[in-house]
Design goal:
globular, disordered N terminus, 13 strands, alpha+beta, 267 residues
């Protein structure tokens, strides 16, 4: 009985000590506090800059913010795709997920894949990206879709999921890992370009309309029936009403990179 009391006292002291450290040593982002690391050690917390995600199959963590160039990268704000390549050639350069940074632009899909892999992560699939974005509301008013210029990551605090993943819609189009070959995606033919009027379980258009559809947020869908393309999702700073969780460019060459295309990683 006495030993039981001693164990309880020691355990209680450890918790109190951890709480004290926790209050004074909160870390930035979602890395968590010392207390959360102690208690959640068995579960395995997400790396700094990522948040835990349990509702999307295949994903345990997602970058909280759009990817940015890390401080060891030679080119902190690439203004052309060759700047991204210069960063890739430096082994110490990694992408980071932090608030208040310039999102990484001018990046091709394969470059984004390499940058994610460099840190033990990967690009999400289109289905995963859609799953992460579900639940976002009022994206036209809360996200950066009408400003004609990109913003620092996390500037639009209301443009977030319930897990506080920011800027999935607007600011930057985001690469996903899927291919579209001759208008075929996931073993089915995609519709022509138009306003989204119906989607599959992965949030990709199965039918389009010539008029904007309020049921699908007036989101627009782009596709071509010949050639090999990648997919970018969500819209960017100048998309207007076309942007949203159903918006997708399924006609983007994977080797292209522009001022309005970025990425984020998952694991």
């Amino acid at each position: 009985m006495k030993w039981g009391k001693v164990v309880l006292v020691i355990f209680g002291a450890l918790i109190i000590t951890a709480l004290g450290i926790d209050a004074a040593d909160t870390l930035r982002g979602n890395e968590g506090t010392l207390l959360s690391q102690v208690i959640g050690a068995r579960e395995g917390s997400c790396p700094q800059g990522m948040v835990s995600l349990e509702r999307v199959p295949g994903i345990s963590c997602v970058d909280q913010y759009e990817a940015s160039a890390g401080e060891k990268c030679p080119v902190l704000s690439p203004s052309q795709i060759l700047g991204t390549q210069q960063n890739l050639e430096d082994g110490s350069c990694k992408s980071v997920s932090i608030e208040g940074a310039d999102p990484w632009r001018f990046v091709s899909r394969e470059q984004a894949m390499q940058l994610c892999a460099r840190d033990g992560k990967r690009l999400p699939t289109s289905a995963e990206w859609y799953g992460i974005s579900l639940g976002m509301v009022d994206v036209e008013d809360s996200c950066n879709v009408n400003t004609q210029e990109h913003a620092k990551t996390g500037t639009y605090s209301a443009c977030a999921t319930q897990e506080f993943v920011y800027d999935l819609v607007g600011n930057m189009w985001e690469w996903v890992s899927d291919d579209v070959i001759d208008g075929t995606y996931n073993m089915r033919s995609l519709p022509e370009s138009g306003y989204v009027s119906q989607v599959d379980a992965y949030g990709m258009a199965t039918a389009i309309h010539t008029d904007a559809q309020a049921l699908f947020g007036d989101d627009y869908f782009w596709s071509r029936n010949d050639g090999a393309y990648g997919i970018i999702r969500g819209g960017y700073y100048a998309s207007g009403k076309d942007a949203g969780v159903y918006a997708a460019h399924a006609d983007t060459p994977p080797n292209s990179g522009s001022a309005g295309i970025g990425f984020r990683c998952v694991r």
